[in-house]
Amino acid sequence: MRNLIWVAFTEPVSPGLVFPRSDWPLHITLLRFDVGTDVSADVADVLANLAEAPVKGALGTRLRVGEEAGFGHMGSIPVSLIEHNPLLQGLHEEIVEAANTVGGRIATPNYVLERYRPHISHHDGKRPKPGDVVVLDQVALVDMAPEGDHTIRRILRLWTQDAQSH
Question: I need a labelling partner for 157 at 20 to 30 A (CA). Which of 18, 56, 91, 109 fits?
Answer without folding.
Answer: 109
